[in-house]
Amino acid sequence: MTLLADYAIAALLVLGGAFGLIGSFGLLKLKDPMQRLHAPTKATTIGVGAALVASALDLVMLGQGVTWQGVLVAVFLFLTAPLSALYLAKTNLARNIDRKSLPPTGTKADWATFKTAAK
Amino acid sequence: MLRRLFPHPYLSLTLALCWVLLSNSVSLGTLVLALILATAIPLFTSPWWPGRPRIKRPFAFAAYAALVLWDVIVANFHVARIILFMPRDKIRSAWVTVPLDLKSPEAISLLAGTITMTPGTLTADFSADGRALLVHALHAPDPKALCAEIKSRYESRLKRIME
Q1: What is the pLDDT of residues A47-82, one digit of tens each?
Q2: pLDDT digits (tens, 9 = 90+) for B17-61
Q3: How far is residue B145's CA from residue B147's CA, in Å, rounded to a whole number?
Q4: At how many degrees (to 10) do helices A2-29 and A45-61 cross?
Q5: pTM for the whole structure
Q6: Partner-chain contact B138 A35, CB within 8 Å
Q7: Do residues B33 and B100 share a domain?
Q8: Based on the structure, what is the number of domains in chain A?
Q9: Mutation for testing the A interface, residue in B68, B125, B129, B134 having most A CBs under 10 Å
Q10: Residues B35, B110: one domain?
Q11: What is the three-class DSSP state of A76?
């Protein structure tokens, strides 16, 4: 049983590490800042997630009982990752991207970033 | 009275739960401190948060969370495959405008967060009147289909849950 858990923990750690590596490799490979944003917001969530599950599993096997801090880490990651991505994207829009290359909003108002820039 | 003491019941509940999870034990001391935090923080921050988000169907919300979690896992493999195996000039990135049917700010932020966490899409901006989202897709040969999928898969569910 412990052997099985050890294999599971090892597999999870390797999986997590692999996804972290892929996310970083994406930063190198992809062409422009908007594409690069996709790599760290996604390919790394599973990396951190797998590491968290592995640590929780390991603590259970060590007889330390079930820990819930890992769940909190995951929740806060899910809350903060989209926000930091949004702000990176908005900064990039404001500094590097021509308004003409974006699609129309389809409503009367312009995209929020460009509205404040025009004022 | 109860309403004035707890202006944001969900926030209070979340804070208390967070505290108990953080301290990782359910003793009397932890619970008392959790109660204090759950009362004090919403009271002091309520001037900056006058609205109260509504979750009409908690079970549908749990189902939605499970769906998003599953999609996030799929998204990881999807993006990993694009990064590893797709030649650089084959990646068709696109900007997509997603018009919104949702009205409440909380529901819109949830949708924007969901879009960022799920397959190959990222919320980059919103229109100044809050009626449309600007979404960047890593690889979208068919932007129209992508927009339709976001609306049917996530937005319609959120609309049923929150509005």
Answers
A1: 888 888 888 888 888 877 777 787 788 888 878 888
A2: 888 888 877 788 888 888 888 888 888 887 777 766 667 777 888
A3: 5
A4: 160
A5: 0.80
A6: yes
A7: no
A8: 1
A9: B125
A10: no
A11: helix
